[in-house]
Amino acid sequence: MTLMLGVTLAGRDVLLVGGGPVAAKRLRRFLAEGARPRIVAPVLHAESARLVEHHGVAWEPREFCPTDLDGAWLVHTATGDPHVDRLVAEQCESQRVLCINASDGERGSARLTAQAEIGDVTVGVTSTVGADPRRSVAVRDAVVDLVADGRLPLRRRRTARSGRVDLVGGGPGPADLMTVRARRLIAEADVLVIDRLGPAAEITQGLDPDVMVIDVGKRPGRHPVPQDEINRIIVEHAAAGHRVVRLKGGDPFVFGRGGEEMLACLAAGVPVDVTPGISSAIAVPQSAGIPVTHRGTAAAFHVVNGQGGFGPGTLEAMADATVTTVVLMGVAALGRLVDSALAHGVPKDRPVAFVESGHTPQQRTTRTTLGRAVGDARAVGLRNPAVIVIGEVASEHLLLPTPVASGAARA
C-alpha cells in the first residue's frame, strides 16, 4: 500500500547518497523545492558538480556511513550499486527516516511521484504495486492533456475569502487555438463573462452546470452591456470570493478594452491578470493565406479600429506600399475608410482582402482593390465579423509558387 502525502521540503535537510546522473536529476528537483540538500559520494557526475558549485551544496567525497543520516528528513540513494542502496535503505528504516531507493523502489520507504504543476494544483502520480515510473509519467501526461483541453474541471469547491479576475484572450474562434493557460483558467472559473466573439459557444458546452455564465455581448434585438456595467459585474463577483474569467475574442489588449477592465479591478483592489490570445488581426488574415508581413513585400503592419476612421499616422503609413493595414470592426465604415485613403493618395489598385468569419467553417475571402472595395463588398454582402487587409500582401498572387524556367526544370 502507498499513502500519498504532500511534503514540504523547503528549508529541510535532504541527504543524497551517490553522485551519478540520477542523483543530479533529483538534486535539481530538491533544490527547486527549496530543500537543503547535501551529498555523500566518492565522485560527482558533471551535472551534480555544476549544481554543487553553483548552489553551494555540501558534498562529502567519501562512502556512506550511518551517521550521515543525522538530521536528515529524507534520503535519496542512487549509488549505482543495488547492494549499497539496499544498505542505505535499511539504515534509514532502522532510524525511521524516509528513504527513496532509486535502484529498487519497493525496498525504499518513499517514492517520488511523476509530478506536474497546474496553476495552484499539483498533480502527482505513482504506482501502488512495484515501481513503474513510465506508467506514472503516462498517467500524469494524460491528466495534463485533459486540463489543457478544458475537459477536467479544476474549480475550487469552497468559496475563497478573496476572488480574482482573469482577462483571457480566446483567440480568433476555434477552442483549439486557445492557449493551455486559457483552457485551465476557464476550467477553474466560478463565473465566466463572455461576448459574441471568440470560442464562447464551444467553451460553455463543457462547463459544470453550476458555473455562472454571463453574456454581455451584442445579439440581434439586444444591445451590448455597457462597459461600465461589465466592469461592475467582474469586480462584484470577484469581491464575493469567486474566480472570474472575462473571456474575450482575440487578445484582451488589442481593441478588447481589457485595459479598462484591468483598471477597474485595480481600483477596487481585486487581483487581476491577463492571459494573451491570438489576435484576429494576425490570425484571420493568416487563415486566408495572407501574411501581414512578407520579406520583400511588407516590412510593417498597422492594426486599426475601423469605427474610428483612419488617423493621420495611419494614412501616412498607407501611402507606403511596404506597410500592411489591418482593419478590425470596419465593415460599417468601409465607404468612409476607402474615401479617406483615396483622398490621401493611396493608389486605387492597392490590393484589398475581406476575410469573413476567419478560422470557422463559414470563412469566406474576397480579393479586390481599394478602388473596387466598396462595390465588391456590396456585391458579396460583406458582413461582420470580418477583417479587412489593405496592402500588397492581400494580392492573390503573393504566395503562389514561382514558375520554374524550362531550362532549370531540365537541369
Please give a structural write-up.
This protein is α/β, with parallel strands linked by helices and 411 residues long. The chain has 4 domains: 13-112, Rossmann fold (3-Layer(aba) Sandwich), CATH 3.40.50; 113-148; 164-275, 3-Layer(aba) Sandwich (Cobalt-precorrin-4 Transmethylase, domain 1); 282-394, Tetrapyrrole methylase, C-terminal domain (Methyltransferase, Cobalt-precorrin-4 Transmethylase, Domain 2), CATH 3.30.950. The chain is 31% helix and 20% strand. The protein has helices at residues 21-32, 46-55, 82-94, 133-148, 180-188, 200-204, 227-239, 258-267, 280-287, 312-318, 334-343, 373-380, 406-410; strands at residues 13-17, 36-40, 58-60, 74-77, 98-101, 114-118, 121-125, 164-169, 191-194, 212-215, 243-248, 272-275, 300-305, 323-328, 351-356, 364-369, 386-390. The chain starts with 12 loop residues before the first strand and ends with a helix. Residues 406-411 have low confidence and may be disordered.
Quick gist of this model?
The chain is an alpha/beta fold and 411 residues long. It has helices at residues 21-32, 46-55, 82-94, 133-148, 180-188, 200-204, 227-239, 258-267, 280-287, 312-318, 334-343, 373-380, 406-410; strands at residues 13-17, 36-40, 58-60, 74-77, 98-101, 114-118, 121-125, 164-169, 191-194, 212-215, 243-248, 272-275, 300-305, 323-328, 351-356, 364-369, 386-390.
What is the helix/strand order? EHEHEEHEEEHEHEHEHEHEHEHEHEEHEH
Uncertain spans: 406-411
Question: How many domains make up the 3D coordinates?
Answer: 4
**Biggest sheet: strand arrangement:** 3-2-1-4-5
CATH architectural arrangement of the largest domain:
2-Layer Sandwich
CATH topology of the largest domain: Methyltransferase, Cobalt-precorrin-4 Transmethylase, Domain 2
Determine the CATH superfamily of the largest domain.
Answer: Tetrapyrrole methylase, C-terminal domain
Secondary structure category: alpha/beta
Which CATH class of the largest domain?
Alpha Beta
Q: What is the overall number of helices?
A: 13
* Net shape: elongated
Question: Could you give the count of β-strands?
Answer: 17
The percentage of residues in β strands lies in 15-25%
Helix content: 25-40%
Indicate the mean pLDDT: 88
N- to C-terminal distance: 71 Å
Question: How big is the Rg?
Answer: 30 Å
The description of the largest β-sheet is: 5 strands, parallel
InterPro entries: 4pyrrol_Mease, 4pyrrol_Methylase_sf, 4pyrrole_Mease_sub1, 4pyrrole_Mease_sub2, CobA/CysG_C, NAD(P)-bd_dom_sf, Siro_Cobalamin_biosynth, Sirohaem_synth
GO molecular function: NAD binding; precorrin-2 dehydrogenase activity; sirohydrochlorin ferrochelatase activity; uroporphyrin-III C-methyltransferase activity
Protein name: uroporphyrinogen-III C-methyltransferase
Organism: Microbacterium foliorum
